[in-house]
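fyi for ur records
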Amino acid sequence: ILPDLRGLYTTQKHKPKITFYDGKTQIAETYWRSLEAKEIFAIGSTSTLEVALPDLYKRYLDEVKKRNIVFHDLLTHESRLNAGPAMKALLKGLYDVKYLPAKHGDIPTDLLIWNDSIAHITLEEPFFATVITNPLLARTMRTLFQTLWEQLP
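which gave:
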């Protein structure tokens, strides 16, 4: 079975790299990884993130500002009240935001797209994240993000 086991670990040039993160501490690592980018696209609920990981939320925004990362955010309607305006006040010209329709409610996840990576993050128990690194998949997700962005007021 040794050749079969080696085959499982052989990387192919175009095969996506998938990394799993469990628990709040490892989720924080996912957010920190995104800070290597010059531009981040996100869909989610800053309201949920602020409640689930309040220390991370503040430190993360401070780092985004410090590193001059352009941040594009599609937020839930619930985030419109507090978190969205707070992020705009802190990040100023580095931050673009639009809001999803109220009928969809709040969501317990975040989706981050940066460089060649896509992170799917849950912000409720069980806390986990999955990061897929592949340039083609990341490009497709950015295209979907931008298409949705153009359709929202």
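The helical segments are 2-9, 23-34, 46-52, 54-66, 83-91, 135-151. thats all i got for now
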